[in-house]
Every structure is written in structure tokens, then in C-alpha cells.
Automatic annotation (TrEMBL):
Residues 544-577 are annotated as: Disordered. Residues 1-139 form the Nephrocystin 3-like N-terminal domain. It comes from Podospora anserina (strain S / ATCC MYA-4624 / DSM 980 / FGSC 10383) (Pleurage anserina). It comes from the Eukaryota. InterPro entries: NPHP3-like_N, P-loop_NTPase. PANTHER family: AMELOGENIN, GPI INOSITOL-DEACYLASE. Coiled coil: none annotated. Keywords: Repeat. It holds the Pfam family NPHP3_N. The keyword Repeat applies. This is Podospora anserina S mat+ genomic DNA chromosome 1, supercontig 1.
Length: 577
């Protein structure tokens, strides 16, 4: 059995039709070789196991010019045949054959599909049908994969050969079209943009799309919109999601999209982390309320899953039940284009409609709420696999972000920056892991290293001033952003503090520790004690230089009697000042 799977619009049906034609020619030139094909369609609204078998038996009988007596008896009985009865008829027909080829397209569109999947699995495994060879196509759904992964050879439509075919198709259309020749000087740029933007989706490179090209496409593919063929496919996909599961799907897609905007390493979001984050969002629990199989069944071809323990492009959901070894991305960029386009508002699935602005705010708020609930005693520091560590790292990126729009959002960020909240104790161990270079740490995510690992009571004060500590953290992050932007930036709003309050708080004493690498590559604590403005003022460059280049050795900082000496940290803990 051969199983070919891919995203909507990847060309599965075109490929199936091509295979049918090639197999027809093969059978015409061979003795006792016959073929049968069947196209599933969502509009039938049925499990298509019996219709498939009936159609296969009919096609085989016509090509043989013979029908068993048992088939006539079934017909004369006038009742709907059962799967076992039709299987018996097929077994009798196979006695006259050398080979039977069966092609089944769009298996996922059988609703429900349990029986047809079991039928194909039975034909593949049962010794009675050893003469049968099956080709099935479908979108990538977890239930289909679980049945077929062990009994079939699987091929993903997302591979370099598809891109090569799309490129040849586009080139041929350009060369044969009088309407497109006016852009002949830009053929190469348009071709590259189309192949890159299609990302394996054949319908986007179709002729009807090419003739609608405008000059705006000559510089890239960023303005492309959802093709009408993909639009109808997405409508069917979202219509099939039960209402009770819709909040789960919305949240999954939100986190997958949000993660893609954080500019990590392109792998996507960790599967286990994703399920835990959605569990917290929906139910407020810190453990996973969903299993990996459920995610694959419900989200199906809306997401792409890469298993780091398998070959590239191959997944094995049964072997990795919690998703810890899997990385999730959107199946295709048009998934998000559909959800955020005006087209969806006039469809039966408008409940899934969103916008980039709304999604970014929801993602940022979810990140901060997850981070604020981080357990201070939890040892997790792996920001790509641990939910709380992930949220603590990403949360530092939101200073002055347009993703935080309301006063409530800004107040959440204020709490996130407040060192007297329990979650803050997790920053130090995460910073130490980052400095030791245990995993790739994208430069976009170094923001967490800009802030102190811990604070303490200043030497000339009786207590800590948490508002001043928040202002210090905000200024340090702002300095980092200024260097990234190549210009000086104004300090964004800090919670509900007014500009006058921020200025006054800058005169307060603060004290604590940073962690940095020394010239020997060892992680050390370095103390500071002084006024906020003195510590963060650009002329001194003290903490600004330290926070922006934490791996280049530590410059002299504002000294404190208690921590004028540098203390080496072991690899597993932080020393508390």
C-alpha cells in the first residue's frame, strides 16, 4: 500500500488522476491486470467503505467481462450488501486475476471514515487480497496516520520534487502565454517568488492565478491572498471541527502563529509545550489536559509536525504520545491568511475569524499570564521545551510592544517586571543556562539577559522599592532595544506609572546582581548598588554594556561592599545575595 498525504491544494487529486491514467495503460498491455479507482467527496456525508467496495467490484467485473453468481444473488436480494459480503465477491474475482490496482483519492473527505480506513487496512493485510495493490491520498490526519504508518509506504507532498514541478509548470506557462510576455524581463524574479510563496501548494501556481499577476508581485510574494480553491478547502476543514473542540483549535493556532512571530530558529513550537500552554489558557491548569493524539486528530492538516527523532518530514504520533519530541508549525502560510482575511467573514466558519493585531495581543497576554503563574521552585530552564521557561523568556520581548494595547495589558507587563513577584526567581537559572550556551539562543531572545537575576535591599536603605526595581528593568530592556534599533528610544509606558512617577523612582537606590561570563567563560554574579539613573545613564555605559554583551566579559559595574568580589556559580544553582 502506498499512502500519499499533503496539505490542501498540494495537487493530490491531480497526482491520483495521473496515476490512474498510467495504471490504465499498464493494465491494457498486461494479461489479467485490472484497476479500479474511487474519489471520496465530503458532500456524500457518509463513511464510504461500502460505496468504495461496490464501485471496485463493478469496475473489476466490467473489465473481466464476468460476474460471479454470488454477485447476482446479492443484486436479486434487493438489500444493501455488507462489507463482508462484498469482500467475498472481490475474493472470487481475484481468483481470475494476476493483479488488481485500487486508487482511492481524498480519503479524509469520507465523513466519518473509520470503516473505510479499516477496509483498506484489511485489504492490505489479509492474505485473501495479496494480489491487490492500493494507492490512497489524503490530508495528513492523525487517525489515518495511525492506521497506515505501519502497513504502508508513505510519501509527503511537501518535498523538493514538488517545488521543482511547480517551477517547471510556471516556466512553461510564462513561455507559452502572450499575456505574460510583457513581464519577460522579470520572469526569473516572478518565478522565484511564486515557487517560494507557493510552499508546495500547487493551486497557487495554477494558470488562473498566474494571469492575475500584478506589478506588485515583481518584488516578492508578501501580498499574496488565499486562492479560491484553497478557500473552499479550508471552509470544509473548519466546518468539520465539532463545536466543542473549536476553542481548543483556536488556541492551538494562536500559539503556533504567535511562536512564528518570535523569530526563534524556525523549528516551530514544541508539541508538549503547546498542549500545556493551551491547557493553562483554557482551564487554568499547569499540567497537560490534552494528549498528542487528540491534537493530531482535531487539527489535522492545519498544522505540520516534525519529529526530531525521525527522518525529516516524517512523524510518528504513536511513538511520542506527549509531543515532547515534535515541533509544530502551520501547515501552510495560507492557513493564517484564511483566518485573517475578509473572505472568512462571509463563510459558515466565521467564528474562527481573527486578525493579526488581535492574535498578537492574545498571544502576548497569554505569555505574560503563563509567566506570572510560573512556579518559583520549578527547576525547568529549557526555554524551547519548558512552558514556564518559554513564557519567561518571550515575555521580556514585550517592552513597548504594540502587542500590549490596554492598561490591563501594561499592568500585566509591570507585574512581570516586578522582582518581588515569585516568578522572578526563575530568571537567574534560565540566564545561567543561556550563558553556558547549552542550546542555541537566538539574538532576538537575548532580552532576558538584560535584566538583573535578583535584587536585594540597598546598603543605604531600609527596604526594597519594587517600583524602582521595575523602572530599572524597563530601562535596561529599553537600552537593549535602542541598540537593536540603531537609535535612542523613549522609555515606553510602565504599567500605570506616570512619567513623573517614573522620573522620581529613578532617584531611588536599587541593589542586586547580574550574571555574566568572565574571560574564562565561567558564569559569575556581579553586584550593583546605586540610583536607577546612575546605573542606566548612557554616559557611564556600565550596565548597558554588560547587558548588551553578556558573553564578552564583564565591565566594571557600580560597586557594592557586599558583592565587590565576583562569585563563580556552579552549573546547577544560583547563589542568593
Amino acid at each position: 500500500m502506498l499512502w500519499i498525504y499533503g496539505i490542501p491544494g498540494a495537487g493530490k487529486t491531480v497526482l491520483a488522476s495521473f496515476a490512474i491514467e498510467k495504471i490504465r495503460l499498464l493494465c491494457e498491455g498486461a494479461t489479467n491486470y485490472v484497476y479500479a479507482y474511487y474519489y471520496c467527496h465530503y458532500s456524500n456525508a457518509q463513511d464510504e467503505a461500502i460505496p468504495l467496495l461496490r464501485w471496485v467490484v463493478a469496475q473489476v467485473s466490467r473489465q473481466l467481462g464476468w460476474a460471479p453468481v454470488e454477485l447476482k444473488r446479492l443484486h436479486d436480494r434487493g438489500c444493501e450488501p455488507t462489507v463482508p459480503e462484498l469482500q467475498h465477491i472481490l475474493e472470487l474475482a481475484l481468483a481470475r486475476l494476476e493483479r488488481l490496482f485500487i486508487i482511492v483519492d481524498a480519503l479524509d473527505e469520507s465523513m466519518p471514515r473509520d470503516e473505510i480506513i479499516r477496509l483498506l487496512a484489511t485489504i492490505s493485510l489479509d492474505a485473501r487480497f495479496y494480489k491487490v495493490r492500493i494507492l490512497a491520498t489524503s490530508r495528513h490526519y492523525g487517525d489515518i496516520e495511525r492506521f497506515f504508518s505501519a502497513i504502508s509506504s508513505s510519501i509527503s507532498m511537501k518535498n523538493p520534487y514538488v517545488d521543482s514541478d511547480i517551477q517547471r509548470h510556471i516556466r512553461a506557462r510564462f513561455q507559452s502565454s502572450m499575456r505574460l510576455r510583457r513581464w519577460q524581463n522579470s520572469f526569473q524574479a516572478i518565478e522565484e517568488a511564486l515557487v517560494s510563496g507557493a510552499n508546495g501548494m500547487y493551486v497557487i501556481s495554477h494558470w488562473s492565478t498566474l494571469v492575475e499577476l500584478s506589478d506588485s508581485l515583481l518584488t516578492g510574494f508578501a501580498g499574496w491572498t488565499v486562492n479560491c480553491t484553497a478557500l473552499s478547502s479550508y471552509i470544509r476543514i473548519f466546518e468539520a471541527i465539532p463545536e466543542v473542540d473549536q476553542p481548543f483549535v483556536k488556541r492551538i493556532l494562536l500559539w503556533v502563529y504567535g511562536d512564528s512571530r518570535t523569530h526563534w530558529d524556525g523549528r516551530g513550537i514544541n508539541g508538549k509545550l503547546l498542549l500545556e500552554a493551551v491547557s493553562f489558557d483554557l482551564y487554568g491548569i499547569k499540567d497537560n489536559a490534552f494528549d498528542w493524539e487528540y491534537l493530531q486528530d482535531i487539527c489535522g492538516c492545519l498544522i505540520a509536525v516534525r519529529n526530531e527523532l525521525s527522518n525529516p518530514g516524517v512523524t510518528d504520533g504513536d511513538s511520542f504520545d506527549d509531543g515532547a519530541s515534535c515541533w509544530v508549525t502551520l501547515a501552510h502560510y495560507t492557513v493564517w491568511e484564511f483566518l485573517s482575511s475578509y473572505h472568512i467573514l462571509s463563510t459558515p466558519v466565521s467564528a474562527f475569524a481573527t486578525s493579526t493585531e488581535v492574535a498578537e495581543r492574545q498571544y502576548a497576554v497569554s505569555i505574560l499570564r503563563n509567566a506570572l503563574a510560573a512556579r518559583p521552585e520549578d527547576p525547568g530552564t529549557h526555554w524551547r521545551r519548558d512552558r514556564e521557561a518559554y513564557c519567561l523568556v518571550v515575555g521580556c520581548m514585550f517592552l513597548g510592544s504594540p502587542w500590549l494595547q490596554t492598561s490591563e495589558d501594561l499592568d500585566l507587563f509591570y507585574q512581570f517586571m516586578d522582582p518581588q513577584n515569585p516568578h522572578y526567581r526563575r530568571f537567574g537559572p534560565i540566564q545561567a543556562r543561556a550563558l553556558r550556551g547549552e542550546e542555541d539562543f537566538s539574538s532576538h531572545c537575548f532580552f532576558i539577559l538584560a535584566i538583573p537575576s535578583q535584587f536585594r535591599v540597598p546598603e543605604q536603605a531600609f527596604e526594597r522599592e519594587n517600583n524602582a526595581e521595575v523602572v530599572l528593568n524597563a530601562h535596561l530592556l529599553k537600552n537593549w532595544l535602542s541598540v537593536g534599533a540603531g537609535r535612542s528610544l523613549e522609555l515606553p509606558a510602565i504599567g500605570r506609572l506616570s512619567q513623573d512617577e517614573v522620573w522620581e523612582l529613578g532617584k531611588h537606590q536599587v541593589a542586586g546582581h547580574f550574571i555574566r561570563l568572565n574571560k574564562s567563560g565561567e558564569v559569575q554574579e556581579i553586584g550593583f548598588d546605586g540610583r536607577v539613573w546612575d546605573i542606566t545613564s548612557p554616559p557611564t555605559r556600565r550596565l548597558r554594556a554588560a547587558s548588551l554583551d553578556p558573553r564578552a566579559g564583564s565591565p566594571a559595574l557600580v560597586p557594592s561592599n557586599e558583592s565587590n568580589k565576583k562569585r563563580k556559580l556552579d552549573s546547577g544553582s544560583m547563589t542568593r545575595g
